[in-house]
Design goal:
The chain has 171 residues and is α+β, with helices and mostly antiparallel strands. It is built from 5 helices and 5 strands, in the order βααβββαβαα. It has a 5-stranded mixed beta sheet. β4, α3 and β5 form a beta-alpha-beta unit.
Length: 171
Amino acid sequence: MSGIATIRDATFEDIERAAFLGAQIVRLHHAVDPSRFFLPENVEQGYAWWLRQEIERPEAVVMVAECEGEIVGYCYGAVEERDWAVLIEQHGIVHDVYVVESARRKGVARALVKAVIAKLEAKGVPILKVSIMVQNEGAQRLVQSLGFQNTMLEFTRVCEEAEHSENSAPM
């Protein structure tokens, strides 16, 4: 890949490619920790269905990075309401960012995240949030460089009942 990526709002024509990229996030998370992250069947089709809904929702921001006519990155964020479970007021959240291997380390992810942040801030959110897989140190460095601070850690534990039932399930 050569040239600079153009960051823009996703269109309905971009949905299939954005869904493919979003599915890569799901597969990556599942590969790292299948006990924490499930992998749905037909993940691309599910993502496409969901993104078609989100692209029209005023609280959502769906953006793509395009280079030489090809979508090389995708980012999704949204305005979320007050959440009593995690004690946060209305906020913006960057849910997804994915850039194809050939476009990495060229500022594409940074440009996508900054564009989503700007759109969320324009919607009036007082605070922004992002969750990143512990193993994804590059993404952690990226968001820290954009002013995000670590405020919570998530710990998971597979319950013994779940382990037993998975291992003894008939094939």
